[in-house]
Amino acid sequence: MFAKVVIDIKHEEVNQLYDYIVPQAFEDFLVRGMRVIVPFGHMERMGVVVSLHEKSDTATKEIKEVLDLIPTLSDEVFYMLDIMSKGSPELISALYQTVIPPELLVGYQKVIRILDVTRIPDDLKPFFSKRGIWRLKVMDHVYYPRLKRLKDLGYVSIETEIKEKKTEKWKTEYTYNPEHNYPKINLYPMIEEIKHQDNPFEKQALYDLGLSDFMIKTLVKHGVLIEKKASVKREIEHVYDSVDHHFQLTSEQKNAINQIKSAKEHHVFLLKGVTGSGKTEVYVNVIDDVIKHHGKALVLVPEIQLIPQMAQYLTSRFDKVAIYHSGLSKGERYDQYQMIISGDADIILGTRSAVFLPINNLKMIIMDEEHDESYIQKEGVYYDTKTLLLAKASYHNIPVVLGSATPSVTSIYNAEQGMYTLVELTKRPKGLPMPRLTFVDMKEELKAKHYAIFSRPLIQGIEDRLQKKEQVILFLNRKGYAPFVMCRSCGDVPKCPHCDVSLAFYKDKKIIKCPYCGFEQPFEQTCTVCKEPKMKEVGVGIEYVEEQLKKTFPKARVLRMDKAEMRTKHAHELIWNEFKEEEADILIGTQMVTKGLDFPKVTLVGVLIADMLLKVPSYQATEKTFMMLKQVTGRSGRLLHGEAIIQGYDLNHFAIQSVDQDDSSFYKEALLQRRLLGYPPFNQTSQILFSGMSFLKTYQKAFLMKKEVEKLGFSVLGPAQAMIKKIKDQYRFTLTLKYKEKSLESLFSLIEHLKTDDIEIKFLPILDLW
Ligand code: ADP
Ligand code: ZN
After folding, report:
1. How confident is the model at residue 480 (pLDDT cuts 50, 70, 90)?
2. Is the CB of 430 under 6 A from ligand 1?
3. Which residues in 314-342 are b (16+ Cβ under 10 Å) and which e?
4. β strands within 8-136, DSSP E
5. Which of 213, 409, 461, 648 has the fewest Cβ atoms nearer than 10 Å?
6. Ligand 1 pocket test, candidate residues 598, 630, 631, most atoms within 8 A of CB
7. What is the Cα–Cα distance from 486 to 502, expressed in whole angstroms?
8. Could you tell me if the CB of 280 is within 6 A of ligand 1?
9. How far apart are the first and last CA of the chain?
10. How confident is the model at residue 142 (pLDDT cuts 50, 70, 90)?
11. What is the DSSP letter of 533?
12. How far is Cα 551 from Cα 210, in angstroms, rounded to an integer?
């Protein structure tokens, strides 16, 4: 038997499958999806078996080792891989690396052995062990070219060793053996204790009884104690307490639950419920039914900071919840993974990479905040989690619930077309009204000589909440914007010499720095152009908001939730819990605070600059602004009457005005726009990005490619300069493609064909701000 194997090397030259002979010993149990070790060139590498065959014309080497008992990649993952490879041109090995849980990837280490010690240069000798072996560490790789030369001369050998990551955790346990016949047992009075207490014992417990290492060893030697290794599960520690939800379900909730429960086959429900309408309660009841019928449920949230809230809700209700996301330690994640594949978890809660988990007997998939952009993986291998989830559900023939207060425009369209079943929650429970909105025009504030970043109504509102011991969320949108510096005298803004962007201002380090190439210089108050000492920061950053807030309300307890604050492990859970437990009065943050959070005591949400995102040139700017405002204002008034204050400079915009209205007119308008301009869901769109040192040549290349792409039947816009015209001295042009249901294969090979050393061509699966 023969196997086709993907080799774990990301390189264009090995971007294919390789045939290997399957040794007889493996034939009985080797199936596709298993990880193997194979010889490759003069090294060994991990690979994944993609298919098995009776014949092969090219196989000459044997599979050396099989690392799995059950396949790491289930059939459904192969199905998803197929979808991923059709949507974007990626190296095969990169695709596989994306879908394999990181803890199951292996590491490689180069090992150098001395063959002729007289020929080893003196400066290298100290690196070798007494036995003439040197295992290269990362920093040793500077010596690699020299070692390679020594190898070519035959003075050393170089091998690659595979290091499986140590993922399982073990402990030693001791059990008392009543059948022993150790004559000197009377010398050990503590043994009486051991006999009568619960076995097995950990070593520490034996120490506590007064046994020394030496005594333990002796007892083990004479068969009084039996020593055994046991694997330890690393439990994920949570800071929150369980909550006791006992609600009288609303009639809308009941109706939603019944509809979803009645589906037994693949079916997509779009659960559209206004903010605070209790969608989670619907999920939980549906899951309860799945578990009662011995099925498993997968629940996805778009970002790690939403995990604690959902985890608390789920673990308070159910026992066997596995949690899987990149914020866990390797060990924790490995143990959660084991719990999932062994079938010990009833519910699997995760972020987007959980879509690749093999779950037996999966009966329900829930995708919360389905509109969220974070479900699209843009770095590394591109994929849209929703597409893959729907494929997974159709593979298992099970229902999916897509939940949101602001479904994506495409999902609304799909529901209108009858592809999804729309289920609505139009009210908050207990007759609680939606938050009252107040718009504050900041231009008017300026006219009234009020220059602070918080308007007078907002200050009034915050004061009022502080007094009543209610909570406040303040949101500053920073997307498409980095704080920069400008000369107040001549208006000069320092730009990066290599990229077409302003240098961002880092107040703490007193530098200005390019966000693209990293070019930096110290911040000087004196303008290089007009020599006046008038260089000053422009705009507001979150740190500035925090500073101002503390000045304006010195007694308020303020928490900040943004990327910088979330770097440490479990930070998202700590901040979330602190605010939930009312240990702070005001939570300020960027995008992170707009999404799905439920804090019952929040009665005021303030949006500092609502129209910031509208300045971004994207066909989605309007929709994104609308959804974000709808979401963030929806954090208010979830238990008590709430209010939201929206500050901005251009508040008459449709996206902002619609926030206070029934959203059907918004969706109608958005779909009309998309239809007129030929954007999704009416067409598929993607982009090709060209970058090169020569402005002219890069443009010409794009122009030439346009003709070729048109011949393939795509309609093409451009070439146009990319939003950032130059990065790292490379000029950038884009072509925008619009098409319907089309295979991209010939396009990918055209790109491959036209690539040259001086001009890079990259396919970008979605229109975004490149
Ligand atoms: P969303 O629809 O915005 O996701 P959540 O699921 O976060 O809303 O629910 C909002 C709040 O309402 C939560 O605190 C939840 O516990 C509470 N809740 C949900 N259903 C009910 C109900 N039937 N009666 C009272 N409170 C409810
Ligand atoms: Zn730069």
Report:
1. very low
2. yes
3. bbebbeebbbbbebbeebbbbbbbbbbbe
4. 17-21, 35-40, 43-53, 65-66, 106-114, 133-135
5. 213
6. 598
7. 10
8. yes
9. 47
10. confident
11. S
12. 59
Specify the higher pLDDT residue, 582 or 595. Answer: 582
375 CA to middle of ligand 1, Å? Answer: 23
pLDDT over threshold 80, residue 629: yes
For 21, the 3-state DSSP assignment is strand
Is the CB–ligand 1 distance for residue 404 below 6 Å?
Answer: no
pLDDT at residue number 228: 87
DSSP state of 355: G
- Phi and psi dihedrals of 624, rounded to 5? -65, -40
The tens digit of pLDDT for each residue in 485-531 reads 888 888 888 888 888 778 888 877 888 888 778 888 999 999 988 99
For ligand 1, atom 15, the nearest C-alpha belongs to 278
Which pair of structure tokens corresponds to residue 649? 């400079």
Residue 637 in contact with ligand 1 by CB distance below 6 A? no
**Which residues, in sequence order, are bridge partners of residue 401?**
269, 366
Burial grade of 763 (CB within 10 A; 0-12, 13-18, 19 or more): buried
Measured CA to CA, the distance from residue 393 to residue 76 in angstroms comes to 9
DSSP sequence for 161-217: EEEE----EEEEEEEE-TT---GGGGG-TTHHHHHHSPSPEEHHHHHHTT--HHHHH
CA gap 382, 521 in Å, rounded: 34
Please give the pLDDT value at position 755. 86
Contact 721, 732 (CB under 8 A): yes
pLDDT of residue 166: 62
Please state, in angstroms and rounded to a whole number, the distance separating the CA atoms of residues 288 and 318: 8
Q: Rg of the chain over CA atoms, in angstroms?
A: 31
Do residues 167 and 330 touch, judged by C-beta distance below 8 A? yes
* Pairing of β 759-764 and β 730-739: unpaired
Instruction: Please state, rounded to an integer, the average pLDDT across all residues of the chain.
Output: 90
The pLDDT-based confidence of 566 (bands split at 50, 70, 90) is low
Q: Model pTM?
A: 0.86
Q: What are phi and psi of 531, to 5 degrees?
A: 65, 10
Enumerate residues 6+ apart whose C-beta is below 8 A from 670: 409, 622, 623
For residue 566, the CA-to-ligand 1 centroid distance in Å is 26
Tell me the H-state helices in 611-694.
621-633, 654-657, 664-677
3-state secondary structure of 234: coil
Distance CA 68, CA 187 (A): 48
Handedness of CA 518, 523, 526, 527 (dihedral sign): positive
* Sheet with strand 362-367: strands edge to edge: 321-324, 347-350, 296-300, 362-367, 399-404, 267-273, 421-425
pLDDT value at position 534? 86
> How many Cβ atoms from other residues are within 10 Å of residue 129's Cβ?
9
pLDDT of residue 616: 66
Q: What is the pLDDT of residues 571-581, one digit of tens each?
A: 888 899 999 99
Would you mind telling me the total number of residues written for the chain in this entry?
770
Strands, sheet with 43-53, edge to edge from the N-terminal-most edge strand: 17-21, 2-7, 43-53, 35-40, 65-66
Helix axes 664-677, 621-633, angle to 10 degrees: 160
Residue of 697, 686, 707 whose CA lies nearest to 750 = 707
How many Cα atoms within 13 Å fall on the side-chain side of residue 211? 27
C-beta contacts of 450-456 below 8 A and 24+ residues apart: 452/548, 452/552, 453/540, 453/544, 453/545, 453/548, 453/608, 454/548, 454/549, 454/552, 454/606, 454/608, 455/645, 455/647
Give the containing element (helix H, strand E) for 311.
Answer: helix 307-317
Q: Kindly tell me if the per-residue pLDDT of 165 is higher than 70.
A: no
Q: Which of 280, 603, 605 to mutate to test the pocket of ligand 1 (most atoms within 8 A of CB)?
A: 280
Tokens of 170: 């073990």
Do residues 616 and 769 touch, judged by C-beta distance below 8 A? yes
